[in-house]
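Incident review: delayed structure delivery

Summary: a single-chain prediction request sat in the queue longer than the usual turnaround. Root cause was a stuck worker, restarted by the on-call engineer. No data loss occurred. The affected request and its eventual output are reproduced below so the record is complete for anyone auditing the incident later.

Affected input:
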Amino acid sequence: ASASSVSALEDLGMQMNLHSTLGSYLQRLVWLLTGHYGRPGTSNAFVPFLSLSKASKGDTSMGKKGAPRVEKRSPVANAKIIIGLIPCNVIPEEILTDHPKRYRAMLVETGNPLHSLADSQRMREAMRALELSVVIDVAMTETARHADYVLPAASQFEKAEATFFNLEFPRNAFHLRAPLFPARPGTLPEAEIHARLLEAMGVLGEKDYRPLRLALKRGRKAFSAAFLAAAATRPKVMKYAP
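Output delivered after worker restart:
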């Protein structure tokens, strides 16, 4: 507590292990109660704080103050949906059923659930039962081999890479690395794959991009202002932004 500079950061070893919620909470309490938060040389939280008393009841929404909060659950297993996520191991149960709201399609990106989840044989059976399965990945994984469609992505060295956990204190920084090698034929960066899928579905198109492209030619400040204006007037722009 008397140290002049202390910083702590948890990662997957804690977040994907037993009692992860409690561990994450206690880890934050250590530097909060000792005063090592929000000043140079100390920690800074890059995730929103939620009331554990409400979260334990399934109330993790971030809606407007006073608005009614509805607990979201998966249609078949009745598993809690927390910040858009369900427990991975209930996915087969959500598919292998005749429930009218069962999961019928799945898009997997940079993951290999047929290999990494519990009961891989049941997960393979579930994937075969889907009406549509799409995989975006740099490798032909076990999951990709069972998919209806595989959209090959360029590797980390063949596309621009950026830092997205860029919430440092007191000065924020953003790092962008240029590609080191040309991409292999037939591959695309994930962002380009996402954009083309949205365009094919008619969600976004040139009419959405043109004002932003014109603003970008005038500089980053003009682009930032144009993007914020577009997001304010057309909610779908922010919904599908990276």
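Verification: Residues 7-45 form one domain.
Action items: add queue-age alerting; document worker restart procedure.
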